[in-house]
Design a protein that fits this description.
By secondary structure, the chain is an alpha/beta fold. Helices cover 46% and strands 18% of the residues. The longest helix has 22 residues, at 153-174.
């Protein structure tokens, strides 16, 4: 039994935990009972802890205090979504308790786990029972008792995990939504998966392999006659939505090439195909999302070079052949007192915020919760002393708040939960006001007057909040809560228009998303105008993914 944890051991424990949650992220995502496509818990926690794994691989921590500090620092900057932020806070507390320690025994581990709980609870305004906070708190209580029984790090961690799973099973009864869906809390499950991985590392088990293997073609073994198609084409596309069906793409690519392999996860898909028309392959794939990266190599030329004894040129060699672009500065000196940063996804929404005076944009929102590091980067590039941050999504507010103290700029987060709230907040900025807190308060009060309606689709079958939902149904949300579901989007538009009419709305703006035509958007605006004849109604291109319409009602 391992009694003490060294710096190198803690590094391996985090690497193991990261591999475990990455391997299990989809089952954890599936615990999300809310059927709207979102940046799910498993994905957010996996991406968050992978930032720590990346930093730890670059270092050889001599002490456990150093290892926990590296871990906590990376998690803080890489935190995505509320679950990622809470995970970072749990490890931040562990780092606090481990400061100055060469190694950590069972008693010290128990104290570190408790400090993690204290740190996480201290950062959450209204802690809810039946969440990762509950699981971590009661698991830490058992850790303290276990340490008194046996001062062994392995024993304490094992007992912590056992108690955590006992609590996790009870979260179904603690939370009415979880009870109705018959599932446990996803964040609690993710945290325990990471701890399990850490325990397995302590016991010397083999780490699960989750990274995709990258085979390199052996051109020396290929003759000219065996090369049916010329170009070895590999590219990655970020999906436009979670439920993208790649069947048609697969059929098309098979028709123009061979050696086809398509790998995918929730967020993206990777294509490998041999074809004579790589541009056509890429263009077709972009119907399903946004191209991230591609590599095209001429196999015939490479085969000829090998046959002639020449060194083959690969796309991987391009960095050595071309001059690297000048990197963007990482910090902008203050040119003014106040600056503004907004989080949004979609060219139209980005343009709207810039027209209202926003200096920097962080691309993100539903399905793409930006990390604290991504937000911090843009904060530092905002040319002002004070930076007002508009998260425009309730799942990004905590990540934005973590930027405070990480920069010399003063960061003020205006807690906008939706894009319409962010736009209204910007419309009520008073730059003549000298007190930034007064400006923020005015913005927040204006944002609170906005009713936000959204129409999206059901990512999974669900029985949620009295609605029987089938995958692919249209879903309407009102201020973040499920409002209605139907197979006809116009039915939902009519129902939301009635809400606007009941509120005697003066302004109704419908931002239409990618894939929605201008004609359809104008038809949606007509439906709203029929029920709100006295309101100023307009449809504007938002270009946002996931949501067909984001509607501001004022």
């Amino acid at each position: 039994m391992t009694d003490r944890i060294s710096g190198s051991a803690f590094k391996q424990m985090v690497l193991f935990g990261a591999a475990c949650i990455t391997a299990q992220k989809q089952p954890i995502n599936d615990l999300n009972v809310f059927p709207v496509p979102d940046g799910d818990t498993g994905t957010n926690m996996s991406l968050t802890i992978q930032t720590a794994a990346t930093e730890l691989r670059k270092s050889e921590p001599a002490t456990v205090g150093e290892a926990t500090k590296i871990t906590a620092s990376a998690l803080l900057r890489g935190a995505r979504g509320n679950s990622g932020v809470i995970l970072s806070l749990l490890f931040r507390g562990i780092s606090k308790a481990s400061k100055g320690l060469d190694e950590m025994d069972g008693v010290q581990l128990a104290a570190a786990l408790q400090e993690g709980v204290t740190t996480a609870y201290g950062a959450v305004m209204k802690p809810a029972e039946g969440t990762v906070l509950t699981v971590s708190r009661l698991a830490a209580v058992r850790a303290a008792d276990a340490a008194a029984e046996c001062n062994s790090a392995e024993y304490v961690l094992d007992e912590t995990i056992k108690a955590g799973y006992e609590t996790l099973a009870q979260t179904t009864e603690m939370n009415p939504v979880l009870k109705k869906a018959g599932v446990v809390d996803a964040g609690g499950k993710g945290f325990l998966v990471i701890l399990e991985g850490m325990l397995r590392a302590m016991r010397g088990e083999e780490m699960p392999q989750v990274e995709e293997s990258r085979a390199k073609a052996d051109f020396a073994a290929i003759s000219e006659e065996e090369i049916t198609f010329t170009f070895d084409t590999v590219f990655i596309v970020r999906k436009a939505s979670e439920n993208v069906d790649l069947t048609s793409l697969r059929e098309y690519l098979n028709s123009i090439g061979d050696s086809l392999v398509i790998g995918e996860d929730d967020d993206a898909f990777k294509v490998h195909v041999h074809t004579d028309i790589p541009g056509n392959a890429i263009n077709e794939a972009q119907k399903y999302g946004i191209l991230e990266v591609c590599k095209i190599e001429n196999m015939r030329i490479q085969a000829d070079d090998v046959a002639a004894g020449k060194k083959t040129i690969s796309a991987d060699d391009l960095d050595n052949e071309v001059e690297m672009p000048v990197e963007e500065p990482t910090f902008a000196e203050a040119e003014k007192r106040y600056g503004f940063l907004a989080v949004c996804a979609g060219d139209g929404l980005e343009a709207a915020f810039r027209d209202l005076g926003v200096d920097r944009i962080v691309s993100g929102g539903q399905t793409m919760n930006p990390s604290t590091e991504a937000i911090l980067k843009e904060v530092n590039l905002t040319p002002s002393e004070v930076v007002f941050v508009l998260p425009n999504n309730k799942n990004i507010i905590m990540a934005a708040e973590q930027c405070r103290g990480l920069t010399e700029k003063e960061v003020i987060v205006v807690p906008t939960a939706t894009v319409p709230q962010g736009i209204t907040a910007m419309m009520n900025v008073d730059l003549e006001e000298a007190d930034p807190q007064v400006i923020a308060q005015t913005m927040a009060e204006a944002a609170a007057t906005v009713t936000t309606a959204q129409i999206t689709y059901a990512a999974r079958n669900s029985d949620f909040d009295g609605f029987e939902i089938n995958e692919g149904d249209y879903l309407a949300l009102l201020n973040g809560k499920l409002f209605g579901t139907d197979r006809d989007i116009n039915v939902l538009l009519s129902q939301l228009a009635e809400v606007a009419a009941e509120q005697n709305a003066e302004f109704v703006t419908a931002f239409y998303g990618e894939g929605v035509s201008e004609d359809d958007a104008n038809a949606a605006a007509d439906i709203i105008m029929q029920r709100c004849p006295n309101a100023e109604v307009c449809a504007l291109p938002g270009g946002q993914p996931v949501y067909y319409y984001i509607i501001s009602i004022e």
